[in-house]
Amino acid sequence: MKEKILTVNNLQKIYESGDVKNHVIEDFNLDIYKNDFTVIMGPSGSGKSTLLYCLGAMESITNGEIIFENKDISKLKNNALSELRLNKFGFIFQQIHLVSNLNLFENVALPGLAGPNKTNDAVYETAKNLLERFGIDDAAKRLPSQVSGGEQQRAAIARALINQPTIIFADEPTGALNQNNSQIVMDLFTELNNSGQTIVLVTHDKRAALRANRIIYIIDGSIVSELNLDPYQASNLQEREEKVNEWLVSMEW
Ligand SMILES: Nc1ncnc2c1ncn2[C@@H]1O[C@H](COP(=O)(O)OP(=O)(O)OP(=O)(O)O)[C@@H](O)[C@H]1O
Ligand SMILES: [Mg+2]
Question: How far is the CA of 157 from the centre of ligand 1 (A)?
C-alpha cells in the first residue's frame, strides 16, 4: 500500500491581468505518493509549471487545498512558508539559478547554512559528499561560469538536496542540456529515487519521462490520463519505451 505524501483537493489557479482572467487550473485533484517518481507531461501552456509551483508552495493558489504532513500548506504565511520551502521541498529549474559569485561548493552549502538544525561543519560535510556523489568534486572551487551546463545542473540538484527534502520538484531539468548531460542528470534522478527520494518532475523529454513509475498527462490544467509503470531499470528498456510511446501517441502528444 503506497503512502500518500501530498494531496491536492479541488485546486483552482487563476491568473488575473487587468480584466482578463486566465483559468489555468480548474477543479484539480491529485495524490502524490512517497518514494514515487512522478512525471507530469502535456502540451506547452497546459499548466504544468504552474501546477508544479502550486504543489511546491512556490506559487499561491486561488482556491482549494494542498495537504502535506496533515497541514494545508496553501494557507501558510511568510515564516512557515519559508521554512517549508527551505527544509521540506527541493526545487530544480530549467534555467539554473546558481549564485554567480559563489563557487559550486558554496552554492550547494548555502541553503544548508540557513537551515536551523545543523552545525556548519555538518552542512559542509553533506555538501562535500553530494559533490562527490554527483561527480563534480573536481569543480567544487569553480564559479558557475567556469563549469559546463551539466555540471551547473548537477550542482543545482545537490543544492536542492542539502536539507534532505521530503519531495524534490523539478521543472524541465534537462531542458537546457545536451543529450549527454541530460542522461547524466536523469541517471542522478533515477539513483536518488532508487534510494527512496520522492520526485515530481515536469518534462517534454520522453527519455526523461521513461524514468518515472507514474506519468500524468495534463491538458488545459486537467489530468486526462495517467500511466503507471514498474520502477525504472536500465535493462528491458525497449518494452518500457514502446509502452510509453503508445500511450503518448494516444494522447496525441
Ligand atoms: N505569471 C503569469 N501570469 C499570467 N499568466 C501566466 C503566468 N504564468 C503562466 N501563465 C499562463 O498560464 C498558462 C499555463 O502556463 P504554464 O507555464 O504553467 O504552462 P506549461 O505547461 O508549463 O508550458 P510549457 O510546456 O511551455 O512550459 C499559460 O497560458 C500561461 O500563459
Ligand atoms: Mg513550463
Answer: 24
Find the 202 Cα to ligand 2 centroid distance in Å: 8
Q: Between vectors from CA 112 to CA 110 and to CA 115, what angle results, nearest 5°?
A: 120
Task: Compute CA distances 158 → 33, 102, 111, 135, whole Å.
Answer: 22, 15, 11, 11
Q: Which of 17, 26, 48 to mutate to test the pocket of ligand 1 (most atoms within 8 A of CB)?
A: 48
Write the class of the CATH domain 1-88+165-175+196-253: alpha beta
Q: H or E element: which one contains 102?
A: none
Nearest alpha-carbon partner for 173 in 162, 158, 164: 158
The rounded mean pLDDT for the chain is: 95
Q: Whose CA is nearest to atom 16 of ligand 1?
A: 47
C-alpha separations of 81 from 38, 85, 142, 239 in Å:
23, 6, 32, 42
> Letter for the amino acid at 108?
V
pLDDT tens for residues 117-165? 689 999 999 999 999 999 999 999 999 999 999 999 999 999 999 999 9
**pTM of the predicted structure, to 2 decimals:** 0.96
- Cβ(59)–Cβ(50) under 8 Å? yes
Q: Tell me, in angstroms, the distance from the centre of ligand 2 to residue 118's CA.
A: 34
What atom of ligand 1 comes closest to residue 17's alpha carbon? 4
Which residue owns the Cα nearest ligand 1 atom 8? Answer: 50
In the chain, what are the domain boundaries? Answer: 1-88+165-175+196-253, 97-164
The answer to whether residues 198 and 36 touch, using CB atoms and an 8 Å cutoff, is yes
pLDDT, average across residues 154-177: 95
